[in-house]
């Protein structure tokens, strides 16, 4: 019996892993180095002002980021289901709404002093915060549009474009950061302006994608489907929406508590801890990010075996990287703090001791990040939303306020209590979600996927050889007999599978490493899916040169099937062949999978 292997999924994981890691790393390193430059050039007060002003930045990015993440996951699932037109509607709708929200935020820039006063309570940091917020809001239209592209391009067969864009934008950003902060009187406004200039200058990187013939997503004015597409994107983006709302509330509440109860020194230490999370995100967030770009698509194809392989590898790789990072951080804590401009005095000791406590939150943080992304990509939005709600606000704020106010009067005791609260909030989230999952999804494992014995599916892989293709019909015929399917229909789908496999070998070139073949029995159809990593080849547009179809020709498949569909998804050829069953052809209750 042929068995499904991991070759194509592993190939896709590694193909998307590096761009995803580069994307996340570039995003986070820009934020971290921004903070370092501000702290070293303008001082710790300016660094704290930027940290406070980022609350408005988070609010400004909320509509665009939520629609981009939710829309790209929805579009990936729709492409996996071969619903390209609907995927285009989702892409177009989120683009239009994000652009409109960006213009609205730009108009709100006139209220920057008011926003800054509310964030700082009118303290000495108000002016610096106001300058940062004003420029940030003026750049909202650019950021809103760019967020759409860098989330969609990975799903749309161009995983390297997003990472290339972010690398270029951060190089421009950090260059202007140094120049504007060092040689102009702009102050914190210069830090915000350099970010906008980086986003704008790097748009040239998107030109090859926009002109690429491999693009599946195209802009079309949605018209009737406008609200349905928006609802779909928002539904898939609900966990991201809740995370950004609650994370903004968390940042606002913790920033205000830290500044007013513990002072500016504690705020500087808290800023460093937040940046350590950004560094961790830079290292492991890209690995987890492949769940959204790859996992959503293969889940849409109902490739549950592939989802399990992907999830297992993502967890292993990310925890291995995190373990190394935590070990380095524990040994070189003093040096890590020094990168943020704190190199001596009492503040150095306070930062080092706090950070050595804080790092124990990172293993729980990673598991929560995985659950958020995984459950969001597999249509478990409520469970994903529970994770984001607990970790970003519902658990952390009560714990932080309780432990800080119960701590001793000293600044060090209160700051250590805050670090413990951050650890406990991540751990409580893991425990709560585990309990909810076990009660709500009884009998299911951590990944909440259908079990093989519950699926009427034949799932196999073959090497790209003629000898292997000859075994495929025998597998399908045996599977059809076990399902009680009419022998004539089974023979037809078996013939189609062999023809498709032979044509993949014939036209795919040397790039083909493996061929995945999936046969699903529904109530009214036999659905055959083939997947390979050969050169782009659309069998639906293929026509034989002569009037006679060849024995291994696409024309034969078209004649014996009721429907043939093709999409190039995840830079893989994906072809679906459907043969309809008669109403009286039903499956026995004791049917089992042959996968």
Low-pLDDT regions: 545-552, 586-595
Estimate percent helicity: 55-70%
Calculate the terminal CA-CA distance, rounded to whole Å.
9 Å
What fraction of residues sit in β-strands? 5-15%
**Judging from the principal axes of the Cα atoms, what is the shape?**
elongated
Question: Helical element count?
Answer: 23
Identify the quaternary structure here: single chain
**SSE series:** HHHHHHHHHHHHHHHHHHHEHHHEEHEE
Report the count of strand segments.
5
Strand order of the largest sheet: 1-2-3-5-4
Describe the protein.
The chain has 595 residues and is an alpha+beta fold. The protein folds into two domains: 425 residues, no CATH class; 126 residues, Histidine kinase-like ATPase, C-terminal domain (Heat Shock Protein 90), CATH 3.30.565.10. Helix content is 69%, strand content 6%. It has 23 helices and five strands. The chain has a five-stranded antiparallel beta sheet with strand order 1-2-3-5-4, sandwiched between helices. A hairpin with a 2-residue loop joins strand 4 and strand 5. Helix 4 crosses helix 5, helix 15 runs parallel beside helix 19 and helix 22 packs antiparallel against helix 23. The longest helix has 37 residues. It is elongated, with a radius of gyration of 27 Å. The protein starts with 6 loop residues before the first helix and ends in a 15-residue tail after the last strand. The C terminus is likely disordered.
């Amino acid at each position: 019996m042929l068995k499904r292997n991991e070759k194509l999924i592993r190939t896709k994981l590694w193909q998307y892993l590096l761009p995803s890691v580069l994307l996340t790393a570039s995003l986070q390193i820009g934020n971290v180095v921004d903070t370092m430059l501000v702290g070293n050039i303008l001082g710790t007060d300016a660094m704290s002002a930027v940290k406070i002003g980022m609350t408005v930045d988070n609010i400004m990015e909320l509509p665009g980021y939520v629609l981009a993440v939710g829309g790209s996951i929805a579009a990936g699932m729709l492409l996996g289901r071969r619903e390209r037109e609907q995927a285009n509607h989702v892409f177009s709708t989120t683009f239009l709404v994000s652009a409109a929200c960006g213009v609205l935020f730009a108009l709100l820039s006139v209220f920057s002093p008011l926003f800054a006063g509310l964030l700082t309570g009118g303290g000495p940091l108000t002016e610096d915060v106001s300058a940062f917020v004003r420029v940030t809001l003026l750049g909202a239209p650019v950021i809103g549009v760019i967020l759409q592209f860098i989330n969609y391009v990975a799903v749309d067969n161009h995983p390297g474009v997003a990472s290339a864009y972010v690398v270029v934008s951060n190089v421009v950003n950090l260059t202007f950061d140094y120049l504007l902060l060092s040689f102009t009187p702009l102050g914190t406004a210069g830090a915000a302006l350099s970010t906008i200039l980086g986003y704008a200058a790097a748009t040239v990187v998107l030109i090859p994608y926009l002109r690429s013939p491999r693009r599946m997503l195209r802009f079309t004015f949605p018209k009737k489907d406008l609200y349905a597409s928006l609802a779909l994107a928002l539904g898939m983006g609900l966990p991201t929406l809740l995370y950004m709302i609650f994370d903004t509330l968390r940042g606002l509440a913790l920033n205000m508590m830290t500044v007013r109860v513990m002072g500016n020194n504690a705020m500087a230490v808290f800023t460093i801890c937040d940046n350590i999370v950004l560094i961790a995100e830079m290292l492991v967030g890209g690995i987890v990010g492949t769940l959204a770009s790859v996992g959503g698509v293969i889940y849409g194809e109902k490739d549950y075996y592939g989802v399990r392989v992907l999830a297992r590898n993502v967890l292993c790789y990310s925890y291995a990287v995190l373990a190394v990072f935590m070990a380095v951080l524990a040994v070189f804590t003093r040096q890590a703090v020094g990168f943020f401009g704190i190199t001596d005095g009492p503040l150095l000791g306070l930062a080092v001791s706090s950070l050595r406590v804080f790092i124990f939150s990172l293993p729980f943080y990673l598991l929560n990040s995985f659950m958020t992304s995984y459950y969001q990509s597999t249509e478990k939005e409520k469970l994903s939303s529970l994770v984001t709600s607990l970790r970003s606000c519902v658990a952390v704020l009560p714990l932080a306020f309780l432990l800080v106010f119960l701590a001793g009067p000293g600044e060090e005791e209160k700051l250590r209590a805050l670090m413990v609260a951050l650890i406990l909030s991540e751990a409580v989230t893991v425990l709560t979600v585990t309990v909810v999952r076990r009660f709500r999804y009884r009998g299911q494992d951590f990944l909440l996927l259908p079990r093989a014995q519950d699926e009427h599916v034949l799932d196999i892989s073959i090497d790209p050889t003629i000898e292997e293709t000859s075994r495929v019909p025998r597998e399908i015929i045996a599977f059809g007999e076990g399902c009680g399917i009419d022998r004539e229909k089974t023979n037809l789908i078996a013939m189609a599978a062999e023809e498709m496999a032979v044509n993949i070998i014939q036209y795919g070139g040397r790039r083909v490493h493996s061929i995945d073949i999936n046969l699903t029995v529904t109530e009214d159809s036999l659905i055959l899916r083939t997947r390979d990593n050969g050169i782009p080849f659309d069998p639906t547009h293929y026509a034989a040169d002569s009037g006679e179809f060849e024995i291994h020709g696409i024309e034969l498949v078209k004649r014996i099937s009721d429907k043939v569909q093709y999409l190039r998804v995840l830079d893989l050829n994906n072809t679906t062949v459907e043969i309809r069953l008669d109403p009286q052809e039903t499956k026995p209750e004791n049917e089992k999978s042959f996968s």
